[in-house]
BatD protein (Croceibacter atlanticus), 589 residues
Amino acid sequence: MQLKHVLLICLVLIGANTFAQISFEASVSKTKLGVNERLSVEFTMNKDGDNFNPPEFTGFRKVGGPYQSVSQSWINGKSTYKKSYKYFLEPTATGNFTIQQAVIDIEGTTYKTTPIKITVTNAVENPTDGNNASVVADDNIHLVAEVSKTNPYLNEGVTVTYKLYVSPSTSVSNWREIASPKYADFWSQSIDIKQLKVQNGTYQGEQYRYVTLRKTVLYPQKSGKLEIEPLSLSIDVDVPSNRRDIFGGRLFETVKKNVSAGKRIIDVKPLPTEGKPSNFTNAVGKFNFEVTTNKTELEATESLDAVVKISGNGNLSMFNFPELVVPSSLEVFEPQRKERVSTTVNGMRGSVEETYTIIPNYKGKYPISPISFSYFDLETETYKTITSKEIVIDVLSGPENTGNATATGVTSGNNKQAVVTTGTPFRFIKQNANLKPIGDQAFFKSIGFWILLLGPLALIPLAIIFGKKREERANDVRGNRIRKADKLARKYLSDAKKKLGDQKPFYESLERALHNYLKAKLNIQTSEMSKDRIQRLLKERGADEAPSIEYISLLENCEFARYTPSSNTAMQQDYDKASRVISQIDKQM
């Protein structure tokens, strides 16, 4: 009998514990609001359920939702689950109202939320949420800079990924970059994103859509805390409004928002001094090293190639190569460098090689001494050194090395040979010069004599005038800047024409041409180039409104081309438009 009571108590406790673990709750953004504000209501559960039934929302009009989100995580082997339904409501009148119970079935049991009382007052002067589309946009748009590693070693690759998160209740119709991140203490390489792709993900535990805007690989060039300035965007955000179309559908309101990814701090560790080789030249990563030749047997005066090659993953092309050491009897030319390096989110990968052309002059065997390459291995956090093998070059035929240079590179001074002369030593000197008299016409006091004498004196005033003009031109800082900018504008416009069909280089050259043209004509810097200022200055200088508007649209096209694909036809049209608009503004100004 006692055993039955014990089992019954255990079952009751287990049931009670299971019941306590399941929760279904309602929450609101505020319990008191003005009639011109908006209320968000969220129903949250910690286990998945069926047959969710929301309340009627008496006294409110539903303007958005339900927006469903699900998140699940495992921490220390323990699973947590969250599912929610979110609504946006706007009051229909002032007074006291109640958000009634929502109902759901979870594991065969019906659960209900607790009613929530809401007070709606008269309209407030400054709405803080809900009806304020700007605030709704703030809550639903997030620009995030994700850093792969915040505590790297010096010269270790770090990837920064910029993602724009947008909640399901809003949408983005357009954006442009207003501030680019600066990497003053880093070597940086942007990774091309050919097409923007919308993906589903979570942000702070909530369901969002996101798009990856930019990926950049950074290699810190000094240790300590280094700052990455933020990426900032101007975004057109579409949020639900109070207006409806003729069919009763909800209309969206577009607001402009500036969002920033925020500054990020990278704490860079210096490379350890313990065990650092003397030939270490800041190579960091995982590398292979080898020295090879395309032949080891050849004739004198033939050539061979010796290749020093470093391959792997790391800061390739950012360190010094070890030099090839060869005997002095071999003629060596300056190496030709080849880089086959690609940059991904995992950093630089590929190979860099230097090719030496070597020509032997004498018969014999010539050793190419081993050389060493050292790098810092990030996996083991230790220095490693790789040494190449000795290579012997066998010159099969040719003149014997009887001079000063030997196969081993040692210079000998005992093999001097006497100079043997034959014949008359002055046979090359012409003894009969066949000289002729000048004649009666003397050069002294002739016309040619006076021209040569007085000509340089006459050029002195011209030289003084030319020097003054040149000095005035050199001191004309503003004029020189304008001439230089105008020259650069023509140069980059020509570069853009050569790069038609290659989207990114084309629009980069076109944007440089447009900016340098403004520098030349308006005497302003790139940092001062706002749309309103450009249009105002062009108008003051006599340019018509139409080409000014076209000029602004060209600048915008260059910005949009960074994020959206463009056809060859569109690029040709932008180039023709730029040439025409610059010509028009030139004539009008």
The first strand starts at residue 24 and ends at 28. The domain at 20-127 is CATH 2.60.40.10 (Immunoglobulin-like). Residues 16-20, 404-425 have pLDDT under 50 and may be disordered. Residues 447-475 form the longest helix (29 residues).
